[in-house]
Amino acid sequence: MNSQILTGLVAALGLMANFALVGPASAQDGHAAHAADHSHHHADFESTRMHVRVDGEAGPGVRDIILIPGLSSSPEVWQGTVDHLGGGWRVHRIHIQGFAGAPVEGNAEGPVAAPVAEEIARYISEQGLDRPVVVGHSMGGTIGMMLAARHPDAVGKLMVVDMVPFMGAMFGAPGATAESIAPVAEQVYQGMATAAPAEYYARGAASITGMINTESKRAGPLEDGATSDQQVSSRAFRELILTDLRPELARITAPTEVLYVKFNDARMTNEITDMIYQASFAGLPGVALKRIDDSAHFIFLDQPEAFHARLDAFLAE
């Protein structure tokens, strides 16, 4: 990958860095209020890293699907997908502690994504789920890849929504490694973790415009960010920069599809974006790569019909 492409990538992924800077910390657990709006319950699963909202009931012919939201996002971002899936599915929506009003609990220090991936593996085992479908957006895509690579027998199918296996490549020179970009990751982390709440919120509020094209869909994710813990989000973003899953991709045995959008930078064409995703996932034989046009990062909010059409086709394969 040449330096011009990487320069564009840094600019494009800068939006993701800014998205982490969404708002001041709040320890209020807002998920109870959601329960009044939608007919779901919380799974009987003890974890200090996450909790799980379940829509639907087990039964003959009912399949299980796990939906993992991204950085500082709540299970609510998936409501349109839950409504679309309807009967025949039991939907398990992950809510990471420290994000979107959930108390920090076990995510008070250290990495976030990797421990959550392990907890989802434990959840699948303890709940007796039979190779569920896993769909992850952004950071949720990273968690999904971790889960499928490290517990290949636990996942039936994997869909990654707008995420690459090594985001750190976009913060360094060609050939960058997790070790070489560690100083940059630390600088990004310090900038996020020590920002004044007002600055943190303002930067996030600006970046959300670039993450969701559809103005009417921005309020929910913006509220999620404003009620996420600043320190948890900051550490999780540093972890994402430093996580290189490319060497692990070959361990994924589940059929995998990656949906993505053109990078939000004038220098990044569809063709360059396609090339980057092809190179990024070269280590995963048989992966299906599908670009969704006219959408920003939250594909399922900007282009729900296109997203659900791809999801339906993937589930039917």
From TrEMBL:
InterPro entries noted in UniProt: AB_hydrolase_1 (IPR000073), AB_hydrolase_fold (IPR029058), Carboxylesterase_BioH (IPR050228)
Domain AB hydrolase-1 residue range list: 65-309
Keyword Chloroplast annotated: no
GO MF annotation list: hydrolase activity
Signal peptide: 1-27
Keyword flag Hydrolase: yes
Alphabetically ordered keywords of this record: Hydrolase, Signal
PANTHER family in the record: HYDROLASE ALPHA/BETA FOLD FAMILY, PEROXISOMAL MEMBRANE PROTEIN LPX1
Protein name in UniProt: Alpha/beta hydrolase
Annotated source species: Brevundimonas subvibrioides
